[in-house]
Amino acid sequence: MLQELDDTDVERMLAALAGSSKRVQRVALSGGRALWIKRYEGLTPSLLRGTMLRRLAARLGPNARMLAPSPRLSAEASAQGEKRRIEALAAAGFRVPRILYQGPAALVLSDLGPNVLALMKALSPVDPQGHDALLVRCARELGRLHAAGLCHGRPHPRDFALDSQGFGFLDLEEDPAAVMPMPLAQARDFWLLFLQVASRALARETLEQALAAWRENRPNAAETALDDIIPMLARFLPLARFALRLRRGADIDRFILATDYLRSAVLLAHPHGQTGQNRFTT
């Protein structure tokens, strides 16, 4: 794919590859364009890295696998894994970065435009409705991805892009489907995104709109899995609230806001508590 770059741009890319060790690096090109270099040395799974925590989570039941990290891989295998996931999304018709060059432990990717988090920050003081509409858009697009039998792994507004060419998916490093069934991985996807929705929404009704937007396309099995995991996560709410009294923390706030809201939504959908627990055990 290097034919997309002129000689000057290739020189800039090679100089950046050799001259930095940043995990993620933006490289400016001619004509106002850009590319991104992603390096995989030192990459670690983002959730529950500790063995003791994984053992504790395992006692909560089969669905606690949603808390498990992706497999620990070499830098080369991590780069290959993200390449495969980019190709899978592209084959399904989703907008993802083009792979311009692949080194032993690095990928050079095309730019998809501003990430959604940056757009939200710009809109927040001047257009609160537009700000929240982006959160709803993220939930809707994630539902479309799930309907195609795929998952993101670590959905966050900064991991989505949006410009005149459309909505795009970034940072496909994590592979939860390698350690859990796809419906559970998709439910985990939505819960992780909802942590951001619940904590960033400027209007309360945005939470309901985001949940409804995801439901427009999501597979039934993904919502069944969500119905199963939310009661499990809700068991941590008293502990989280107690911890919040001792020390304020953004992560704890997000957990309480998102999990409490989704627990209420599950109870409304199943007023008699009939959420098929432990259905995803293979």
In angstroms, what separates the terminal alpha carbons?
A: 40 Å
Helix content: 40-55%
Sheet with most strands? 4 strands, antiparallel
Radius of gyration: 20 Å
Helix/strand class: alpha+beta
Poorly predicted segments: 46-53, 276-282
Spatial order of strands in the largest sheet: 1-2-4-3
Tally of DSSP β-strands:
6
Mean pLDDT: 86
What's the SSE pattern?
Answer: HEEHHEEHHEEHHHHH
Number of domains: 1
Described by the principal axes of the CA atoms, the overall outline is globular
β-strand percent reads: 5-15%
Question: Helix count?
Answer: 10
InterPro entries: Kinase-like_dom_sf
Protein name: Serine/threonine protein phosphatase
